[in-house]
């Protein structure tokens, strides 16, 4: 006798009582087989219960695709409980990627015209959740009609469905413009809330709709004013505030309508000030409205006093007990710092106090904002607070904090000594977390400050004697001891009380560094060099001790250390008379040797483009020179005289020139400059191509795609795909990011390599996909055939 099928409650209870996963899987497979058999036998009486069980199995993660057609059958049923199960199944089992969902269009249309409001609500909910663009185009008229007339519950769902339609198919915006005007006059808060959402969605996609609804700003201001002044209403008030959800939606719509429009912004200034001053902040509801008010004030062209009021509201948020509110305030202040720097600076002490917050996310946000607040007027006080924070913060924050202090000190240091003291403090406390360039930056700073050499070497020597575990500190200290150790031996220092160091004590400290298991190979290399340089100031037994320490590393496993030790040992054995001159103080490397544009400067201070060293690439702004001039310039770069010496006359100039050109036989005519090409300019998104052809690979074109965003909001999920004809080969490297940040922030870049061996005219097809700040997904295909001739010939 076949086993009877289980009811839904019994199935749930049996699956929950399964002791092992294998037992559960066996039970599900057995019940799924029964359900599949019932579907195949077309049993209408048990179809709804079987589909309900299948939906539960689907929720557990097991396959349930074979129930899709049964959902359509139940939707077409005249019984409400079967129709409800059918719509639920469709919402769970169907999506746009499956062709089956297109069969829903006719059933949903019939149910939208059904006399029962319950059936209409089911159809509207399903259409809004899984409708495709084609379904929306077919059913937009019915949805618009239901939103105009009918029961309030049906109208609310129809308005929400209209929002989904506008978001999915922006072309249908014109269908709902008249509906939006009508909804603004509705007395029902729920329908009015949906109508404002619909208007905001339309204005975000359609410039004509934006201009149309800007005329309704006084009406929206009046609605918001009435809500602020309204008394308690049991139907709409939450924590004593009248319909906060509607207030938030109106503020968002006002922000969209007032953006970049001074007249509209002036119209809403009074009501924004009223909301900002009259909203109670004792409950989280009031804080939500205030935060939305701040965003609206900063998003429109509001008065300066109102903008300061908005910053002060965020400053009060920093004292709130709720850590989520504090986090939101810190993030908002950081975004507004560039536009309202002076107003944000007033809350610097409160921001620094947030560094002690127990929540790590709030602490990280406070650190980022504190570093951004540093300027020349507050650098001493702020960096002191940051150094104290560095001493106690978690390891995952030390790297960001140390790097930020370094950058602030380098940019705003009031004096060289303060700069050196600050960097030494950071190296002492968090040397293992600093950036890789901190060591060369500090050595350059000390080397360029002659009057502080004795002070720096004494401070570093004392720090090294106390702790040799911080590798960057040890490297800087050993470098200074090697360069300026004679000042320690002489005990001369004007900045602080001088301290004369015994040579043997100094050598013992360097020996500790060499023998420490904490020392990196690079650190040992610094210590070896310091020993050699100290040897030029010492005599007798100290020299023998240095020779013995150096010879130990002649058989070191590290190749770099071994080579250095062997060379130093050779200086002692064969070239002792040259040791003092070879180990002189290092000359100061001029950081200005590289210009901002990446060009190098020669000894006379003239700027030389780095491309001058690349055959076939002409430096920017230069003209083609004759061969003799090119050879002369190359000789200048190599440090040779540009003119023949009178002591060594050149008898055959052409032969000499030819010999040099033989060495540079790969020198080719300069490549023509390639201009930037704008390939996409839509939705405030600008995509530009800058092209370059390597001189040694003429068939290769390097394209750098630069994606910038002129809108204040971020564009997310950006992707760029490229296709070329079969005669070309294209390689698309990974982009620098998938989020194109708002106006004034760094763009996204992506490198495209195009190989064109046959030198054919270049054609390219781009597919761009991204999501606008409003959440709308956009996908565009662009055809480019206007590449300059120099890009492919």
UniProtKB/TrEMBL annotation:
The keyword Protein biosynthesis does not apply. The keyword Protein transport applies. Belongs to the adaptor complexes large subunit family. Keywords: Cytoplasmic vesicle, Golgi apparatus, Membrane, Protein transport, Transport. It is found in: Cytoplasmic vesicle membrane; Endomembrane system; Golgi apparatus. It comes from Gekko japonicus. This is AP-1 complex subunit gamma. It is a peripheral membrane protein. InterPro entries: Adaptor_Complx_Large_Subunit, AP1_complex_gsu, ARM-like, ARM-type_fold, Clathrin/coatomer_adapt-like_N, Clathrin_a/b/g-adaptin_app_Ig, Clathrin_app_Ig-like_sf, GAE_dom. Gene3D superfamilies: 2.60.40.1230, Leucine-rich Repeat Variant. SMART domains: Alpha_adaptinC2. Residues 672-788 form the GAE domain.
């Amino acid at each position: 006798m076949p086993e009877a099928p289980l009811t839904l409650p019994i199935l749930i209870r049996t699956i929950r009582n399964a002791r092992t996963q294998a037992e559960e899987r066996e039970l599900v497979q057995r019940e799924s087989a029964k359900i599949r058999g019932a579907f195949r036998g077309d049993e209408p009486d048990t179809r709804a219960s079987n589909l309900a069980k299948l939906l539960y199995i689907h929720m557990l993660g097991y396959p349930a695709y074979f129930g899709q057609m049964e959902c359509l059958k139940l939707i077409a049923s005249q019984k409400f409980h079967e129709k409800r199960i059918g719509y639920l199944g469709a919402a769970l089992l169907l999506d746009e990627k499956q062709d089956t969902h297109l069969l829903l269009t006719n059933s949903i249309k019939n149910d939208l015209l059904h006399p029962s409001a319950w059936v209409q609500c089911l159809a509207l909910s399903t259409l809004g959740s899984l409708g495709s663009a084609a379904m929306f185009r077919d059913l937009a008229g019915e949805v618009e009609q239901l939103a105009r007339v009918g029961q309030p519950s049906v109208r609310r769902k129809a308005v929400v469905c209209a929002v989904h339609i506008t978001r999915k198919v922006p072309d249908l915006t014109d269908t709902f413009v008249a509906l939006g005007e009508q909804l603004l006059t509705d007395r029902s808060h729920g329908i009015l809330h949906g109508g404002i959402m619909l208007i905001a969605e339309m204005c975000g996609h359609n410039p004509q709709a934006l201009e149309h609804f800007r005329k309704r700003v006084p009406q929206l201001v009046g609605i918001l004013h009435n809500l602020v002044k309204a008394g308690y209403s049991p139907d709409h008030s939450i924590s004593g505030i009248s319909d906060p959800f509607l207030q938030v939606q109106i503020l968002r719509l006002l922000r969209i309508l007032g953006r970049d429009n001074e007249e509209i912004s002036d119209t809403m200034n009074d009501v924004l000030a009223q909301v900002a001053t009259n909203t109670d902040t004792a409950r989280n509801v009031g804080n939500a409205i205030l935060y939305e008010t701040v965003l609206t004030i900063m998003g429109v062209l509001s008065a300066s006093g109102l903008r300061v009021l908005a910053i002060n509201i965020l400053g009060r948020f920093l004292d709130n007990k709720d850590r989520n509110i504090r986090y939101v305030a810190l993030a908002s202040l950081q975004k507004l710092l560039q536009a309202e720097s002076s107003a944000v600076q007033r809350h610097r002490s409160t921001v620094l106090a947030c560094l002690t917050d127990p929540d790590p996310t709030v602490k990280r946000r406070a650190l980022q904002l504190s570093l951004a607040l540093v300027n020349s007027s507050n650098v001493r006080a702020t960096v002191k607070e940051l150094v104290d924070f560095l001493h106690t913060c978690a390891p995952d924050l030390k790297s960001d904090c140390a790097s930020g202090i370094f950058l602030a000190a380098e940019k705003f240091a009031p004096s060289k000594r303060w700069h050196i003291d600050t960097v030494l403090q950071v190296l002492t406390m968090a040397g293992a977390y600093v950036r890789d360039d901190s060591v060369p930056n500090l050595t350059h700073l000390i080397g360029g400050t002659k009057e502080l050499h004795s002070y720096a070497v004494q401070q570093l020597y004392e720090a090294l004697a106390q702790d040799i575990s911080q590798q960057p500190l040890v490297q800087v200290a050993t470098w200074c001891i090697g360069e300026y150790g004679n000042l320690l031996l002489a005990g001369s220092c004007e900045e602080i009380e001088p301290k004369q160091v015994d040579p043997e004590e100094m050598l013992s400290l360097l020996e500790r560094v060499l023998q420490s298991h904490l020392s990196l190979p690079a650190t040992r290399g610094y210590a070896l060099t310091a020993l050699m340089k100290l040897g030029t100031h010492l005599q007798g037994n100290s020299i023998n001790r240095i020779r013995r320490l150096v010879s130990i590393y002649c058989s070191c496993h590290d190749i770099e250390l071994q080579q250095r030790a062997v060379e130093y040992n050779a200086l002692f054995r064969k070239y002792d008379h040259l040791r003092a001159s070879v180990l002189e103080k290092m000359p100061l490397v001029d950081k200005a040797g590289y210009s901002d544009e990446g060009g190098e400067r020669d000894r006379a201070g003239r700027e030389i483009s780095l491309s001058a060293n690349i055959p076939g690439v002409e430096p920017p702004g230069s003209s083609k020179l004759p061969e003799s001039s090119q050879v002369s310039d190359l000789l200048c770069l190599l440090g040779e005289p540009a003119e023949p010496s009178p002591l060594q006359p050149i008898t055959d100039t052409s032969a000499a020139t030819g010999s040099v050109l033989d060495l540079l036989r790969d020198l080719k005519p300069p490549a023509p400059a390639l201009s930037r090409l704008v390939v996409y300019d839509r939705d405030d998104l600008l995509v530009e191509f800058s092209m370059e052809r390597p001189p040694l690979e003429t068939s290769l074109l390097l394209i750098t795609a630069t994606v910038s965003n002129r809108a204040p909001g971020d564009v997310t999920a950006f992707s760029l795909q490229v296709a070329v004809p079969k005669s070309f080969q294209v390689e698309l490297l990974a982009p620098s990011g998938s989020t194109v940040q708002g106006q004034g922030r760094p763009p996204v870049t992506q490198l495209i390599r195009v190989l064109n061996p046959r030198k054919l005219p270049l054609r390219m097809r781009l597919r761009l996909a991204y999501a606008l700040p409003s959440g709308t997904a956009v996908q565009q295909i662009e055809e480019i055939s206007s590449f300059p001739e120099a890009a492919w010939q």
